[in-house]
Amino acid sequence: MTDIGPMGAASFICGDWGTSHLRIFLCDAQGMVLDSRTGPGTVDASGHFSDVFESLAAHWEDSLGTLPAVLCGMVGSSIGWVQAPYLACPVIPEQIADACVTLRGGRVHIVPGLSCRNRFDAPDFVRGEETQILGALQLAPALRHGRRLLCLPGTHTKWALLEDGSVREFLTAPTGELFAAMCEHSVLVGKHGSVETRIDAEAFKDGLASFNAFPHAQLLHRLFECRSRQLSGELRAPTAYLSGFLIASDVHGALRVLSSSTETRMVHVIGSSDLTQLYATTLADHAYEAVQVEGTAASRAGLAQVHQRLSQGGGT
User: Fold this and answer.
1) Between vectors from CA 69 to CA 63 and to CA 72, what angle results, nearest 5°?
2) In the beta sheet, which residues pair with residue 23?
3) In the predicted structure, residue 1 carries a pLDDT above the cut 70
4) Cβ distance 39 to 21 under 8 Å?
5) What is the per-residue DSSP string for 76-133?
6) Strands ordered across the beta sheet of 147-152
7) Would you give the DSSP letter of residue 197?
8) DSSP code of residue 20
9) Is residue 83 packed enough to be buried (19+ CB in 10 Å), middle (13-18) or exposed (0-12)?
10) 304, 27 in Cβ contact below 8 A?
11) Residue 112, preceding bond cis, omega within 30 degrees?
12) pLDDT score of 30
């Protein structure tokens, strides 16, 4: 735990309260982190959200007094503390702060999600990634101009189109969820119950190359290769191969649908460094430059932006 420094430096609390875990930060007025604490995710905190938050915030508020807080993620979902709305795209950044739901007498603000009809005329939703997009707009100001493409890889990868800083539309691919399900429950990979934490780089590139050899083939017709190539002795690291194969499919499909709406061959990839590097490698195969943005930093910058607008009188 870090030294929180001068008492007067603390300005607000922010955090991303996801399904599996919570991490909240004590920040100064500029959003710099002074201290942090962790807690249970929304599933384990169900029915006790107020108590969980109060127990963590009390570590700071006992000496600093009551502080405003901004939270994003599944805390604002149907399984969260309160259900925050989904704002229909297109959405400008200020609308996100203005639509926050308040708790604790107006001292806790829950960030809303986003919704759209995607390119396949299906409803699509974002909950949590909207805050990372807000942060990316602060960390990479060039995103505020022109039509830009973002990729937020994860369990449910989001591809978002920005136009002059507003979120125009997005597309979701459950790439990470499919990868985990196949590794943990499928005979195709062969290592049930575990997902490798380190990806074999060469096997990952083999997966990319295999997909790229027949990019227009249906994914369903290719997945058995994760098993058949093991049986033939061609495959030594099936999970890495599967990762390359699925990410190649994700990137190829998203670019095919969305790239015509952008102005540059550049994608800002927001997330953990390991995962953004895998997507950067894949994008390079399509002659796209990837600008990697650290996901936690983007989330904190977005939450700080929401707090700043609320403290200036925006929002509820």
Assistant:
1) 145
2) 16, 38
3) no
4) yes
5) GSTTSSS-PPEEESSB-HHHHHHT-EEEGGGTEEE--EEEEE-TTS-EEEESSHHHHH
6) 166-173, 157-163, 147-152, 266-271, 289-294
7) S
8) S
9) middle
10) yes
11) no
12) 85
How far, CA to CA in Å, does 279 sit from each of 76, 79, 186, 189, 269? 28, 30, 24, 21, 8
DSSP 8-state code for residue 234: -
How far apart are the C-alpha atoms of 114 and 25, rounded to whole Å? Answer: 24
Q: Is the pLDDT of residue 104 over 50?
A: yes
Length of the chain: 316
**In sequence order, what are the residues at sequence separation of 6 or more whose Cβ sits closer than 8 angstroms to the Cβ of residue 141?**
none
Q: Are strands 108-110 and 101-103 parallel, antiparallel or unpaired?
A: antiparallel
Q: Are 76 and 84 in contact (CB under 8 A)?
A: yes
Q: Tell me the β-bridge partners of 88.
A: 115
Compute CA distances 88 → 130, 222, 244, whole Å.
Answer: 12, 36, 33
How many Cβ atoms sit within 10 Å of the Cβ of residue 7? 10
Q: What angle do CA 29, 32, 35 make, to 5 degrees?
A: 105
Q: Angle, nearest 10°, between helix axes 238-258 and 273-284?
A: 60
pLDDT of residue 196: 56
The pLDDT > 70 percentage for the chain reads 94
Q: What is the largest CA-CA distance in the chain?
A: 66
226 touches 239 (CB < 8 A)? no
Q: How many CB atoms sit inside 10 A of residue 64's CB?
A: 17
Rounded distance between C-alpha atoms, residue 259 and residue 243, angstroms: 23
> Can you read off the two tokens belonging to residue 69?
């807080």
Q: Tokens for 281?
A: 């490698």
